[in-house]
Amino acid sequence: MFENESNELKAKDEKLARVIDELGDIDFSWAANDDYFQMLCRSIVFQQLSTKAAITIWNRVKERTPIAPKEVLTADLDGVGLSNQKKTYLKDLAEKFAHNHVRTDFLNMTNQEIIDELVKVKGIGQWSVEMFLMFSLKRLDVFSAGDLGLRKAVQTLYGFEELPKPKRVEELSRVWAPYRTLAALYLWKMLD
Length: 192
Known about the structure:
CATH architecture of the largest domain: Orthogonal Bundle
C-alpha cells in the first residue's frame, strides 16, 4: 500500500528514506470513517486524556446517545465522565452541524477551507482539524507541524540538538509534498 508514494518520499529525502526502508509499509486503512460528525465528537472527547480513559468515556457517551447532531444537542451528558468544558464543546459542535452553521461539504473543500470552517467550533483547533483531514478525509498532503510527536521525530531524524519550532518543522515538511500525511505516519511510527 502506498508503494509509489513511499518511493517518491524516499527519492526526496535520504534520511526519511532510511526510516521508510526500516519500517516498511504503513497501514493507513484502519482510519477510514466517513461519519464526520462522529469523528469530530470523538476528537473532542479524546483531547488531553490517556487513550484508556478516553475510550471509556467515549463508550459511555455512545451508550447514552446516538452520535448525531440533533441527538447530542439534546442529550444529558452528565455522569459519563466528560468535563463541563467538553460537554459545552460537544453541544457547540452539535448546534453548528444541526443548524448548518458550518459548511460540511468537506469533499468539495480545500484543507485550508476546512480548517477555517471547523476552528469556529469551540474546542476544535488547528491540530484537531489536521488530524481530521488526515484520518477522516484521508488527505495525503497534511502535516501537523505543531504536533509534539512530529516535532520530536523531526528532531531525531535530522539530529537537531533542540526541539525544532513548528515553523521550522513546517518548512522542512514541504519537501515531502504532496505526501506529507504519509511522511507523518512514518515519523510517528518511528517514535514507537
